[in-house]
Amino acid sequence: MLIIGIAGGTGSGKTTVVNRIIQSLPTGEVAVLPQDSYYKDLSHLKPEDRQKINFDEPQAIEWSLLVEQLCRLREGKTVEMPTYSYLTCTRQKETVTVRPRDVVIVEGILVLCDPVLREMMDIKCFVDADADERLIRVISRDCVERGRTPQMVIERYERVLKPMHCQYIEPSKRFADLIIPQGGTNKVAIGLLTDFIEARLRRAQSSNNSY
After folding, report:
1. Contact 98, 78 (CB under 8 A)
2. Which CA distances in Å does 47 have to 83, 153, 154, 203?
3. Which of 28, 149, 165, 202 counts the highest number of beta carbons within 10 A?
4. 2-8 and 178-180 as β-strands: parallel, antiparallel, unpaired?
5. Nearest residue to 109 via CA among 153, 177, 33, 58
6. Helix spans in 11-62 (H)
């Protein structure tokens, strides 16, 4: 099993990179564990108090559960990945069944911040993009998917996203094996990454067939 970590700022194009990796490999070879699925459950808090939580710092994530499920996948076991609602800031009753695959991608803004998770990764990537480009994407996404107004997004960007990016996300770039500039539009860098993944898979399959 090849474990790939893909980090980068909010709106940097991580999802585009992940999708292009999936599209380049045979169907069914890739499983994805989004960091966002592992936000801590806040159902014990009042709705107004949930809105005060900082979701862009490492403490907001249940890293122990993510690491545990990644270990189980590496052992060849199926896991039930949690789901999370941005509208209510709570973990949902529904889960997503994830089966072991040749490639597992762990994706999220903070996935290179946790040392235990980072140590499990075979390849660590950081998707880079200019701050203004990321802000535009975040405004477009949050207004459509999360019911926020442009002013709400900008206020949150200045109050939370920008300082947390500078404090946690940008410094985690130093742990990356590969930095992908220009976000998901960098076809050359994504092509090099997928070529590397395919080569590693071929070597692993060749080793298994030799026994």
Report:
1. yes
2. 18, 19, 22, 51
3. 165
4. unpaired
5. 58
6. 14-24, 47-50
- How far is the C-alpha of 189 from the C-alpha of 199, rounded, in Å? 15
Residues in Cβ contact with 176 at an 8 Å cutoff, skipping those fewer than 6 apart = 7, 112, 124, 125, 126
- Which residues does 148 contact at the CB level (< 8 Å), separation at least 6? 142, 156
Closest CA to 65 of 116, 126, 24: 116
The average pLDDT across 101-128 equals 96
| CA–CA dist 198, 59 (Å, integer) | 34
Q: What is the mean pLDDT of residues 39-56?
A: 80
DSSP one-letter code for 87: T
Residue found by looking up tokens 């089966």 in the block: 99
Instruction: Of 98, 96, 110, give the one whose Cα is nearest residue 73.
Output: 98
Please, what's the largest Cα pairwise distance for the chain? 61
Residue 210 binned pLDDT confidence (cut-offs 50, 70, 90): low
Which tokens hold the place of 119? 């140590």
pLDDT > 70: what percent of the chain?
96
Amino acid at 10: T
pTM of the model: 0.88
- Residue pair 5/97 in contact by the 8 Å Cβ criterion: no
- Does 39 score more than 90 pLDDT? yes
